[in-house]
Amino acid sequence: MLRTRTASPADLGKIAEIYNYYIRNSTATFRENEYTLEEMEEKFETVRRTYPFLVAEDDAEGVVGFAYASRFREPSAYRLAETTIYLSPRHLNRGIGKELYAALIRESRRKQPELTGLVACITLENKASIRFHEKMNFLPAGILRRAGFKFNRFCDVGFWHYLYPDLQ
Asked: How far apart are the C-alpha atoms of 81 and 145, rounded to whole Å?
């Protein structure tokens, strides 16, 4: 059985393992160096002070995905948070991401009631992530050409915006 819950320090090894897979194998993240456990602990502590950091957990396999929100931009006038979600490659296309992201959307607003919406930054070659975000009611908001350079090539990124329904 799958459940979504708040991440704990005990989950960080598995979270780093999932994240590092995408660092090594994709442009889903522009990070080029794998996370050490210490770096993941630091990220976790920074995020959880203000925003939700969630995991999807399977009874048989443990943590199979994670999602968190973080500050979008530094000035305090911004009322947006940026989202991050990664699933174990063996657990894609099972509805896990939808359940995890729905919880992230709810928990982000609960923890930060002043938020008007969320922002996702997606590499344009990541068509699956674009489809996923649009199914989750994120709308295209802009493109930055040649924004990142990974695996010896430039990549474009797009921003997708989720506006909380009570503000529409």
From this structure: 22
